[in-house]
Amino acid sequence: MVDNLEEYLNSSLLERNIAEFYSRNNIKFPRADFYKSFCLILDKEIQRTYVGDNSMNNSDKNNHFKWVWDKTCETYINYGFDFKENKLLFKYLKSIFDDLFYDIDDKSDSKNITLFENISVMLESIFNYNILKSQESLWIFADIYEIFDASLKK
Fold first, then answer.
1. Is the pTM of this model over 0.85?
2. If we measure between CA atoms, which residue out of 45, 8, 40 comes closest to residue 119?
3. Model pLDDT for residues 44-90, shown as the tens digit of each residue
4. By three-state DSSP, how is residue 107 classified?
5. Which of 35, 65, 107, 119 has the smallest count of CB within 10 Å of its CB?
6. CA 131 to CA 22: how far, in whole Å?
């Protein structure tokens, strides 16, 4: 019984600390959901429209990301968010997709297919404010949130 109470008190304290972190960093949950949807649509479109390594060199891969980026950004302009000119956001997300998708040589290997499927899981996790997170995960969330928010300041 004491172990359960102690566990409860520690998790409650952690939840309070996380709530304080969100408040201190001015994180608005509806906006976080919006940013998450942008990332998930970007991921879905990258994987849906990718024609394969045999057909694409590095320049083609860069152009593919840029094309999907532009297409996804155009959708969000209708909602009043102009991510297209946010160079830091472009570089941040491009580096994620380079590391976890474009730079993977054998995309037909089953372990890599699992990795590609997990890109959306990772993105969901970053933006999920309803789960307990490590300090590092909170800072990653706050960093990408702030990068997205820079699009609003123009």
1. no
2. 40
3. 999 899 888 788 899 999 999 999 999 999 998 888 788 999 999 99
4. coil
5. 107
6. 13
Are 33 and 127 in contact by the 8 Å Cβ rule? The answer is: yes
- Tokens coding 148: 């997205």
**Residue reference for tokens 């201190």:** 24
The amino acid at residue 5 is L
Q: How many C-beta atoms surround the C-beta of residue 59 within 10 A? A: 8
Instruction: Extract the tokens encoding 72.
Output: 């996804």
Q: What is the pLDDT of residues 79-130, one digit of tens each?
A: 878 899 999 999 999 999 998 888 877 656 656 555 667 788 888 888 988 8
Residue 153's identity, in one-letter code, is K
Is residue 42 within 8 Å of 72, Cβ to Cβ?
A: yes
Q: Report DSSP state, residue 82.
A: -
Tell me the C-alpha distance between 90 and 109, whole Å.
28
